[in-house]
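As described in the Methods, two query proteins were run sequentially through the folding procedure within a single session, without resetting any intermediate state between them. The first query and its resulting structure tokens are shown here.
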Amino acid sequence: MNTADRSIALLDTALRRRFDFEEMMPKPEILNNKIVDGTNINLTQLLKQINCRILNKFDRDHQIGHSYFMNINNNTDLRRVFINKIYPLLNEYFYNETETIAEVLNCAKSDLNNIDENWLNILEKAQKNDEK
């Protein structure tokens, strides 16, 4: 544990002593099976499938919350959220292990090599029930 980790741990302990925290798990149903304009991405299905794979690979506390998807109205919004928020979060969770991230997104490892061009293809695979 480095110095930054220790200072965060102390802050975490101090906050937990002073405040109540209510667990709020992801609620994909809030997304109402919304299909993103310009795509065939169903946000509810996408969130459910990614979180199901995260549960299998990691734990329930690292699931992606529904709030990431709340204000997505078109493919530009979806691309921004995936590339700037979801993908970096998965990289953090899985320590940049491309193979594990590809499993969570139900895609080939090579799909992640050029995420700027392959993002829609990756998300189409990620929302599917079956593995690869």
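Immediately afterward, the second query was submitted; its sequence and tokens are:
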Amino acid sequence: MGQPKVSIIIISFDMAREVPRTVQSFLPPYQQGISNNEVEIIVLENGSSHPVSEADRAQWPDNVRYLDIDTPHPSPARALNFGVSVAKGDIVCPVIDGARMASPGLVSTALDALRYSSHVFAASVGYHLGEKSQQQAVLDGYNQTLEDELLASISWPENGYRLYEICAPAGSSPATWFGRINESNAPFLSRAMYDKIGGFEERFSIPGGGLVNLDFFDRAVSQSDFDYLLLLGEATFHQFHGGVTTSKSVQLKEADGETTWTKYLREYEAIRGTAYRPPERLPTIFGKFPPGASGIAKRGLDYLAGASS
């Protein structure tokens, strides 16, 4: 294959069930408006005890590379930076959580956005599969089996936009496409912009990365010369996998009496020398509204209405 337009870098950590769906969702023909030679996918196995099976990997086309990280780190930051360093595309999309399935127009809409100017940071919002955020749903017994049944109920992957029928806004983007977001699990930007930001901060060492993704996002949207675009109608959808921040509330106290969130905040302050605050910058919305997304959009608008009342 020649040089692709975009490289999707996907971190895998004990996601043998989830990553194959994620990879499929970032490839044609599921991804609309792009061809196979325009995209490459790099899956980085970051110390998994249960990696993606050989049978699943054998089904991937030649534009998918699967690499084991020789010296895995509890945080995915180092692996992401490595993935970008070996990527062939001039545009990169670091997917810090390999359980994030994409909507069908995510890649083509992002590529259109990056034609807008040479300094575009194109962000996507995140949703959780299920009726409510997975931190809450797990308390009601939500699990992988129920999620498989949900996906079967919409005949995924026949029409990926039907994912909007079985999802809930993530805590980082409660207003969906209509307000501020705190992170993006599939941002698109040029390699030059990635280098200018400094990539992912490798000093974040908490398993799962703590606030490393929020830190990367904040540094990106804080760049005054970056055009910050939010991809309307496109998103990622988180599959349940027992992850660090989605299998429980980060506000619950752990055995040591501290909450996970408190530990995240303390590490961030130790690294940045200031308390974490969500970015205030509002994005410019870019894209088009797909069929089937009206319900999830209404939830975002209802959130905004409630926040302002």
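The beta strands are 6-12, 39-45, 64-68, 91-95, 100-102, 120-129, 167-169, 189-190, 227-238, 284-287. We note this only descriptively and draw no conclusion about the first query from it.
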